[in-house]
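Bumping with the actual sequence this time:
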Amino acid sequence: MSDVVTVRPECLRRADDGWERPTGAEIREMMRKANLTDSKVAKLVGVSAQSAGGSRRVRKWTSEESDIPYAAWALLCHAAGLGMIWIEGE
């Protein structure tokens, strides 16, 4: 059985084009594809693990305790090799 999670196409749209927030499993899948830990994601998206619990914030996104902001999700998708989802036609 595969642990790979399929990310819904609605999560890969521009923010102004019907984007839907990813589930915790979808966020973890992008992290897996990008080969990033919680702390590396925190640094990538600007919620540094060095300041006020950046890794904790990422864990809240993956546990669905709080929503991941579009900009953070878009950067994570880019790091995972899915291109610039915030640009039409990418």
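The tokens above came from a reply further down the thread. The longest helix spans residues 24-34.
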